[in-house]
Amino acid sequence: MSLKSPISLYDVQGLAFGVLMTALGVTFLKEAALVTGQTAGAAVLLSYVLPLDFGAFFILISLPFFWLSWVRRGVSFTLRTIVAVLGISTVTPALGALIRFDELPPLLAAVLAGACCGVGLIALFRHGASAGGLGILALIIEERTGFRAGWFQMCFDAVIFALALLVLPLEGAVYSCVGAIVLNAIIAWNFRVAQTVPAGSAG
Which residues cross the membrane (predicted)? Predict the structure, then answer.
């Protein structure tokens, strides 16, 4: 992936879109009391059992991965990722306070969450960032081995959902798994680390 510096208006809109879509996906999850995988899933799960909100956990879990990003991916990628993590941590509770659902079937919430987060993460990847945490490691592994980032994250998600069974009812864990499959399939089928996006192009 080509990392572009200094940041352009093209990248700014892409990062903003990625943050918004990812935050919207997490909002669907929390409204339906579901979880997802990766770092966001761990943060959502912890927010259900400990007295801190999603945003705080999301930042705390991402902190150790920022060093890995700085060493392996460079300054530009790391700074953009920090901005994305802070953005998601801020926008998610804001959306949760603004959006109200009279009825949100959990299966629909899971599919919408997976689709929104998948599209949001692709936007972040395409503009030289990630949502922090495991996404950084997944990109490094794909670059070095060719093992797709989406499939790697799906393996990690299995651990998250095993833990979710201790917190959520079985039905909630199953719906959460559906959402994670949608998310990771979208990334695996629609994004390659090797692809290069010229500055100023559409998409």
Answer: 12-29, 49-70, 82-101, 107-125, 146-167, 173-191
Interacting residues of 77 by C-beta distance below 8 A, sequence separation 6+:
3, 69, 128, 129, 130
- DSSP character string of 144-201: HH---HHHHHHHHHHHHHHHHTTTS-HHHHHHHHHHHHHHHHHHHHH--TT----TT-
Cβ proximity of 8 and 199 under 8 Å: yes
In whole angstroms, what is the distance from residue 147 CA to residue 11 CA? 26
The model's pTM is 0.82
Q: What is the 3-state secondary structure (H, E, C) of 56-117?
A: HHHHHHHHHHHHHHHHHCCHHHHHHHHHHHHHHHHHHHHHHHHCCCCCCCHHHHHHHHHHHH
Q: Which two tokens stand for residue 111?
A: 């599919």
Comparing CA positions, the residue from 151, 145, 178 lying closest to residue 164 is 178
| In the chain, domain spans | 9-189
Cβ burial, residue 125 (10 Å; 0-12/13-18/19+)? buried
pLDDT single digits (tens) 34-65? 998 778 888 999 999 898 889 999 999 888 88
Largest CA distance in the chain: 47
**Cα–Cα distance, 122 to 192 (Å, whole number):** 9
